[in-house]
Amino acid sequence: MSAHAIRTESGIGNEPPLPAPRPSSAIFDIPIDLAPPAELLRTISSWAGQQRTRRVMYVNAHVVNQSRVTPGLVTALRGADLVYCDGYGVRLAARVLNMPVPHRMTGADWIWGLATLCERSRQPIYLLGSEPPIAREAAYRLQKLYPRLDVVGAHHGFFDLDSAHNDRVIEDIKAHAPGIVLVGMGTPKQELWVDRYAAELDGAVVWTVGALFDYVSGHTPRAPRWLADNGLEWIFRLAIDPSRMWRRYLIGNPIFLSRVAGEAHRVAGEAHRVARDAPRIWGEGHVAGNGHWPAGAPHPLPAAAPQTPAPARLLPLARRPLVRVRAIAER
Questions:
Q1: Bridge-partner residues for 94, per DSSP?
Q2: Are residues 146 and 231 in the same domain?
Q3: pLDDT digits (tens, 9 = 90+) for 288-316
């Protein structure tokens, strides 16, 4: 897993690739976009008018946990055109693993900005997911708050993939021709649905949104700002819905932290192995600092390569992730 990746927007079919690369952090092999929320919203809303299928997904601790046990989920996430951070756990993991830290963008905050952008650009949206009445109630509230926003349809998410009901839903979406389809079915169903069926929706932007419609409709209250801004919104969600959320947070959060610690240990182990093998690979004379290679030994690096002994550079990096995990665990 690389510490930093450049995510390139590739072409689909015979379409040429787009030139602009997107900087990202590859956390647990999932490239997570590093752009700030305002830029992400502008990018996604601009895609809606291009008649080109786009997949947008988010990652938080729960999604990471599910990706380690659900076949196809990592593939779906890695195949998305844009993946953003929706949780402080992912930001913590980036810090521990010495990676660029992505911004956090959560649906209950960005939906109002997206509604404004779609209202101005006259891009129609479709809501798919949640329980039967909730998606329609969310659509009603959005249209009440944004009178010129075109919410062309809403449908619940209680149907099986590859079912006749699913086929009818796809036909309904195509008949309404939305520019953006918001899919709130919960992980992993929503990601697998988007990965499998987005290409059938005639060039729409198809975006996983989790429990967004519960918030927009007013069925689920938001956590106080001071909790949300300090990474503690999960405590509020657990308090208001313990029967549904206890497993995700009381079991899932420790599992996620253990995975972060394990990944940090793996990265540290790789750095130690590189440092240990450097004298053999680079030559004992060079590492000892005498400024020349052993007689007859091939020079493994270009002449301009840095001359700092490898262990001196790598050992501090190897220790740093484990030190951070211990510091977090002791708080």
A1: none
A2: yes
A3: 445 454 555 555 544 444 444 434 443 44
